[in-house]
Design brief:
It is a single chain. By secondary structure, this protein is mainly alpha-helical. The protein has a domain of 354 residues: Serine Threonine Protein Phosphatase 5, Tetratricopeptide repeat, CATH 1.25.40.390. 45% of the residues lie in helices and 4% in strands. It has 19 helices and six strands. The strands form three sheets. A two-stranded antiparallel sheet has the order 1-3. The radius of gyration is 24 Å and the shape is globular. The relative contact order is 0.13.
Length: 506
């Protein structure tokens, strides 16, 4: 067996997991946790049996619950603090640039996220590529097809986050072979890939979702943690609203299919984020509105709540340091001007603190949508898709303003707000503005605001104006331009892969 060349690459696990051993020097006689992946002939085996497949599949699902930094914590930093909904919260050098628009490729948050996303891609790829070759007759054809569908949905949601952050990213759908002295030229591109265009990435997401849709599990009203057909439909609605694949009729189609799957707005908005009367458990899980969520229970709670405020199941725990993503005055004013007390009360809470970075310590606001270690993190919910349908009805070539206004009114009625005025309902531009504001209030602190501004080309007018009208926001370092729609590729990744190019403007 040839000695492998091992490359010390931080993000290499995003492409393949390299293992180095010499069977001559370190003889291995049987499968174990250590020997998994190599048979007696020294050949690579991804999964030795069905149990190994199921373990890997579970590890994929565990990412939604256990690895929250990149797909939740940092997306709130981008989606809300890099937009006008929030301030950075803490003054740390890795966080503040999202508020004052001074993000550079050296930012450690972006470096962490890139690596984590690529690890997720590798995890999905391994299941997609190898599940059909597992030599275990107890693993049925139907099960193999199901598991591949779930992995394709997972890969699609990972790439959807990546492409919205960075635009052109490496598109990896295979598992790279180990590097030997004989094949290094052949496999080099697998380890040092070039970026695919944003459109190509969206096309792969589309392909994964359409291929997965017939075989994925159906929506289970009692378990919203699965990569189901409904998750695929929600993602399809979202990608068709984006510029590279924009098709407003398909946004409407998949939103309607979600309604047919049984999704609807929760009658009580507090069911989504609230707790029981004793603050010992989440008020509800698996609501009619939740499409995909990570669930947490006593004993295996969610640590991310420490980053945003108080854990109401352990009130004083980890409340001695400034929290990330502090609600902005501009957003709080938007709630108040709209008379939107219901969503304000579910989104923002005030506590006394020992710090005063943005507000007086005696009355300091915090995110309230994740208020304990046992609340679910909702990745996708129906209100988002329903409002995207309204957006599509406004924006398509033959707009239906009446139907769009009816959807916005439905969302408003749930939180006791009056219908839109007639002047707004009949004016396309005014109705689009109302839609954008409604999404802001409905989806505050769910990581959506920045991406709404990008999708609708509102970054420059909104963000370059907010610093002057929001007295609490840190001074703007750089103006927002057309280059701001993408974030910088982490410099550490550029240093490791000479085939990658930095996004323009950084």
């Amino acid at each position: 067996m040839k000695r492998y060349f091992i490359y010390s690459i931080v993000w290499i696990t995003g492409i393949a997991t390299l293992a180095s051993c010499s069977l001559v020097r370190d003889p291995l006689e049987a499968y174990s946790d250590v020997t998994e992946g190599v048979n007696e002939a020294g050949e690579y085996v991804a999964f030795k049996d069905k149990a190994a497949v199921l373990s890997h599949r579970q590890s994929m699902y565990d990412q939604i619950r256990d690895r929250q930094e990149h797909w939740y914590l940092d997306l709130l930093l981008v989606g809300d603090a890099h937009a006008d909904n929030a301030y950075a919260g803490t003054t740390g050098a890795e966080v503040l640039p999202f508020e004052n628009n001074s993000i550079e490729g050296s930012n450690s948050v972006l470096g962490r996220d890139w690596g984590r996303y690529m690890e997720d891609v590798a995890r999905a790829n391994k299941l997609i590529v190898y599940v059909d070759s597992v030599d275990d007759n107890s693993l049925t054809t139907a099960e193999r097809t199901l598991y591949k569908a779930e992995a394709k949905i997972f890969r699609a949601l990972v790439y959807f986050d990546m492409v919205r952050l960075w635009g052109d990213v490496p598109l990896i759908t295979t598992v790279a072979r180990d590097i030997t002295s004989e094949n290094i030229g052949e496999v080099y591109e697998s380890y040092f890939p070039m970026q695919s265009t944003e459109k190509e990435v969206y096309e792969q997401i589309q392909q994964d979702l359409l291929e997965a849709l017939p075989h994925a599990p159906a929506n289970n009203a009692q378990d919203k943690t699965r990569f189901s057909k409904s998750v695929a439909r929600a993602l399809l609605a979202k990608i068709y609203a984006e510029k590279p694949l924009r098709d407003y009729n398909k946004v409407i189609q998949y939103a309607d299919e979600l309604a047919a799957d049984g999704f609807a707005l929760e009658q009580d908005y507090s069911n989504l984020f609230g707790m029981n009367a004793g603050n010992t458990d989440a008020k509800m899980r698996n609501t009619s509105e939740s499409i995909l969520e990570g669930q947490f229970f006593a004993g295996n709670g969610n640590w991310v709540t420490w980053m945003f405020g108080r854990d109401l199941t352990n009130y004083n725990s980890n409340f001695t340091w400034a929290k990330w993503v502090t609600p902005s005055r501009d957003l709080i004013n938007a709630f108040q001007q709209e008379g939107d007390q219901v969503r304000l009360n579910q989104s923002v809470v005030y506590y006394q603190t020992t710090w005063s970075n943005y507000y007086p310590a005696s009355n300091y606001p915090f995110i309230y949508k994740l208020r304990s270690a046992v609340n679910s993190i909702i990745k996708y919910r129906y209100a988002d898709i329903l409002l995207l349908k309204a957006e599509a009805l406004i924006q398509r070539d033959s707009p239906d303003l009446t139907a769009a206004a009816a959807i916005i009114d439905q969302v408003r009625a749930r939180v006791n707000l009056a219908p839109l005025p007639a002047a707004t309902r009949g004016n396309r531009a005014a109705l689009l503005d109302a839609l954008l504001k409604e999404r802001r209030l409905e989806l505050a602190f769910e990581g959506q605001r920045w991406f709404d501004l990008v999708r609708l080309d509102r970054v420059e007018p909104v963000m370059n104006a907010v610093y002057a009208k929001d007295s609490g926001r840190r001074a703007q370092v750089y103006p927002f331009t057309n280059y701001s729609y993408r974030l910088p590729i982490p410099q550490s990744i550029l240093d490791q892969n000479p085939n990658l190019k930095q996004n323009l403007g950084y």
